[in-house]
Design brief:
Shape: globular
Number of domains: 2
Structural class: mainly alpha
Distance between the termini: 46 Å
Radius of gyration: 17 Å
Helix content: 40-55%
Oligomer: single chain
Largest sheet: 3 strands, antiparallel
Number of strands: 3
């Protein structure tokens, strides 16, 4: 399993926070949040282990992976300050919305699922794909869809 369910299923503060994240990032289900939290837990666990037992190579690997994803961390202590929102903001759906290609995160999700988005000439069908910093400039929306979106914005 790629995520863990919450220990307290009816925790009011967690439910409100998740509801806010779902609307802000255009998510479909809560397990998308839980998946990002599981990934973040993994990064933090690795950082805590490296703080306890220093290993320069593993530290460089972890920091390199996070920086490649576009989450800026200069030292291993910075990994512990990374938030769930930082992981969610690197999803393909959110990157397309933040680049103002679409008017909403839900519209970005629809374009991706319908196969209109490609990265480096590879069609992407997964809204939860984590976009690396170097691939961010290679995102392309099919030309026919672009003209329709531009026409809607003008009207």
């Amino acid at each position: 399993m790629k995520y863990d369910r919450p220990f307290k299923p009816y925790d009011k503060t967690r439910i409100e926070r998740e509801k806010k994240l779902i609307s802000e990032y255009g998510l479909k289900r809560k397990n998308e949040i839980w998946r990002a939290e599981a990934l973040l837990r993994s990064f933090r666990r690795r950082a805590r282990e490296l703080l306890a037992r220093r290993d320069e190579k593993k530290e460089a690997d972890l920091l390199g992976k996070l920086n490649k994803l576009g989450i800026r961390c200069s030292k291993i202590e910075d990994v512990l300050t990374v938030k769930t929102e930082d992981i969610l903001s690197r999803r393909l759906q959110t990157v397309i919305y933040k680049k103002n290609i679409t008017e909403s995160a839900r519209q970005a999700r629809q374009l991706i699922v319908h196969g209109h988005v490609s990265i480096d000439n590879r069609r992407m069908l997964w809204p939860g794909y984590l976009v690396t910093a170097e691939d961010e400039d290679k995102i392309d929306v099919r030309a026919a869809v672009k003209t329709d979106l531009l026409r809607e914005k003008v009207e």
